[in-house]
Amino acid sequence: MGDNSADQEYVEYVTARLPALRRLAYVLSGDSHRADDVVQQTITTLYTRWSKIRQAEHLDRYVRSMLVNTFIDERRLAWAKVRLFAEPPQREDPRSGDVEDRSVLRAALARVPRRQQAVLVLRFIYDLPVTEVAEILGVSTGTVKSQTSHGLTALRRLLGEQPLAALTKER
Amino acid sequence: MHLDESNAGDLLRTLPGEPPLPPSIDIGRAMHAGRRRRRLRRAALTGGAVVLTVLAVTAVPVALRATSHKTDTTAESSSAPPSPAPASAPTSKEPTQKPTQELPAVAVPKSCTAEKLPVPDNVAQALVTAADPTGRFLYGRSYPTSGQHQLLLWTDGKATKIDIPGDDPTINAANTAGYAVATSLTDDHWAGYVYHGGTATKLPGGDAWANGINAGNTVVGVKVDPVSGLRQPAVWRTPASQPDLLALPADATNGEARAIDDDGTVVGFVYDNTKPDGRAYAWAPDGTGRALPSPDKSITDAYVAYTVRNGWATGIVGLRTTSVAGVRWNLHTNQVETIRSFTSRPSTANARGWMVGSDMQGRGLLVAGGQQVQLPDGYLHRPGGLTNIPQTISDDGRIIGGQSDDPAGVIHAMRWRCI
Q1: What is the DSSP letter of A125?
Q2: B interface mutation test: which of A1, A33, A48 has the most B CBs within 10 A?
Q3: Which chain A residues are Cβ-neighbours of B13 within 8 angstroms?
Q4: Is residue B82 scored above 70 in pLDDT?
Q5: How far apart are CA B65 and CA B20, in angstroms?
Q6: What is the arithmetic mean of pLDDT over B319-347?
Q7: What pLDDT sits at residue B90?
Q8: How sure is the predictor about B243, in pLDDT bands with cuts at 50, 70 and 90?
Q9: What is the residue extent of each domain of chain A?
Q10: Domain with residues A97-171, CATH architecture
Q11: How far apart are CA B120 and CA B143, in angstroms?
Q12: What is the value of ipTM here, to two decimals?
C-alpha cells in the first residue's frame, strides 16, 4: 500500500525483534526450518494487521501471541489438509528426522500436545507469569494451570525412568 | 527426583535457545504476501454462494473393469484391481455386489461446477469437515483469528454459526435428520457432543471422542482413559445413553470406532498400543467383531477403516510408509480393493460406493462405478499440493463438499454441484 512510513516502521520493528522471535520459535519447535516458517508466517500476518495494531500497548506480547498460536495452529491446518494418516490431532505423530536437537528432552517435549508444549516453554523457559501466558494463548488462567500440570505429567511419563540429574547434564 | 514445577525450569532451560542455522526469513516477502492477502480479502465476495468456476468439466469415463487389466498393475488410472499379490486376491466385480439397500439407478454425474461457500463475518479461511448423506447439510470451520475457529453449518448453501463447548471442536459426522457429532477439549478432557437444532449435548460416560452417527441417532466413537490414555471403541445407543464398549480381539489393547452404518454395523480399527498402527475392524449389529481383509497380503497391521455407508467402508493402507493408498471394502461380500487415484484419503463412500478425493495433480476427483469425473478447480491446482480436496459426497453423487486453495494459499470452503 502507499503508506511508506507505516511500512518503514514495520520493517524496523520486525528487524529488531527477529532474533527474539526466532529463538521463541526454535525453542517451541526444535527445528531451524520449522522455526523460520513459523516466524515467516507470523510476520506476514503481522503485516496484514500492521495499520491496526502498530499503536497497540503491548505490541510485543501481541506478536509473541501470534507466533505461539501459529505454532499451535500450524499442525491443525496442515492436518486438515493432509489427511493421509487421518489420525485425530491428539494422536501426535512422532516428529520426522529433521529435528536438529535430538536430545531425549527435546524428543519428549515434542510428543507433548502442542498447546501444553507452548505453556511449558512460556512458563518455565521464559518465566512468564500465569496471567501473561493466559493472555498470550487466549485462554483462562485456570486452563494455563491445568495445562501446566498435564504438560508436566505428560513430560514426566515420556521421560520415564530417566534420572533428572542426567537430563539436566545432557546437551 | 520427580519432575514438577519447582525444577521444570532448570530442566527445560537446558534446551538450546539459538537456532543453529542462519535465518532464512525474508521481510520483503512477508510484506509482498501480506499485501496480496489484503487485496484478496477486499475482493472476497460476501452473501450467497458465489459461482467461481463455471467450467463445466465433461466426465471422462475411464473403464476400470478389472478383467481387462489383469496384467496391467501399473495403470495410472487406478484400474482398481486388487493388490499385486496373485491367486488369492479378490477381484473387484462391482456390478454383482449386493448393497444393503436396493437403490434406484442414478447416472454418474457428467459435469460439476465449483462454488465458494459463504463465510459469516467475512473470515478469509474456512473448510468443510462433514456432511449428511443428502448433501443438504455441510459442516465445517472458519478461522477468524489465529488460534481460534468457528464451527459452521451450511444448509442448502446458506451459512450459520454453530457453538459447541470446549476448545477445538470439530464436527465429524452428521445424519439427514440434522444431528451431528463433534469432539472437543475442555481443560485437557475430551468430550463427545451431539449437536441438533442449536443445542449441543455432551455424551455421557467420561472422556470420549464422538466419531460417527447413523440415521437412528446411534453414536460411535472412542472412550478415552484420561490417565492411561487407553482407547476403547464405544457405542452410545442414544445420545443420552452410557457407552457400551465394543469387544477387542485378544491381541489388541486398544481400538477405535470410527463410523456406523444405518443397519448398526460399526467400522474402525484395533491395535496393540506398543505400536502406532492398526488393522481395520468391523463390528456387526450384535457386537461380533471381525478383522477386515487387508488389500495387501504383506501388510497385516497398518491399514485402517474410517468410514461406512450402505455396506461400503473406506480407509487406508500402508500407514507410515511413503506409499499410502486408499482402500474400499464391500462388507457383504468381504471384497477389498486398493484405490490409487487419490493422494488424499478417500472420502466416505456414498450409498452407491462412489468416493471423492484429491488426485496427484491437486485436482478434485470423483470415482464412481468404474468412471472418474474430474472436478473443476476452485481456483487453481498444483501437482502434489492437495490444492483441491473434496471431502464429502451425497448419496446421489450430486453434491460434494470440500476445500480449495486460492493462489495465496488461503483455504476456502467449497461446494461442487453436479449434473
Answers
A1: I
A2: A48
A3: 124-125
A4: no
A5: 55
A6: 85
A7: 36
A8: very high
A9: 1-81, 97-171
A10: Orthogonal Bundle (1.10)
A11: 11
A12: 0.75
